[in-house]
Write a structure and sequence with these properties.
alpha+beta, PH-domain like, 2 domains, four-stranded antiparallel β-sheet, four-stranded mixed β-sheet, 44% helix, 20% strand
Length: 204
């Protein structure tokens, strides 16, 4: 039925034939050179990538150190008015700008010291999981499309990749990283993707 409906629509002028996919879509590359991956990232896949990233901020010793520093910082912020011979209400009345600064700094320190509760939900919202992702991997680099965002990156823009049983994680030279679920890799293209990653990036 779908084929018949499409044929009738074309004949009546209500629909135009789709443009064939060709090399122009890949900026001159042969489609066979490009692993074209389209998917909606699942929350559990983003959580996994965030948890397994082999960066300094994910090291347990670093997390303990940061929570300790922020805990001490929160205590110091709480005593700032008393170091000036005032209570918090007096400090607020006399120096509202300074009171706001130390108050917000204390709240931020407490948040980190408590382990950043709710960060996973914030991370999911910031990553717009309801928007389709498209990652095209070739010998030339990696093109990423996420809604209106489009980035054309060279391999030198990435520092390493990681692999788990369910995802590939591509870490850029900044704090940003991209997650590729293995479930989304087109059939028969998994070996090609793995070969490209191993040839172009350090594996961790």
């Amino acid at each position: 039925m779908d084929g018949l409906a499409t044929k009738l629509a074309k004949e009546s002028g209500l629909a135009s034939p789709a443009a064939p996919q060709g090399a122009n879509e890949y900026n001159g590359l042969d489609p066979r050179e490009v692993v074209d991956i389209r998917f909606f990232l699942k929350p559990e896949e983003l959580d996994e990538a965030t948890a397994v990233r082999k960066v300094k901020s994910n090291e347990q010793s670093h997390k303990v150190l940061m929570r300790t520093i922020c805990g001490v910082g929160a205590v110091y912020c709480a005593f700032v008015p008393y170091l000036h011979g005032a209570t918090w209400p007096m400090y607020w009345n006399n120096r509202p700008g300074s009171a706001l600064f130390w108050g917000f700094l204390m709240i931020g320190d407490i948040y980190v010291a408590l382990g950043q509760p709710g960060m996973a939900k914030l991370n999911r919202a910031a990553n717009r999981l309801n928007v389709e992702r498209r990652i095209c991997v070739s010998h030339r680099g990696i093109d990423v499309t996420h809604g209106r965002l489009r980035q054309q990156k060279q391999w030198s823009d990435f520092s390493f990749f990681q692999e788990t049983p369910t995802i590939y994680l591509l870490q850029t030279n900044s704090a940003m990283f991209w997650t590729i679920p293995k479930r989304a890799i087109p059939g028969g293209r998994g070996d090609q993707l793995e070969t490209l990653l191993k040839a172009k990036l350090q594996r961790r």
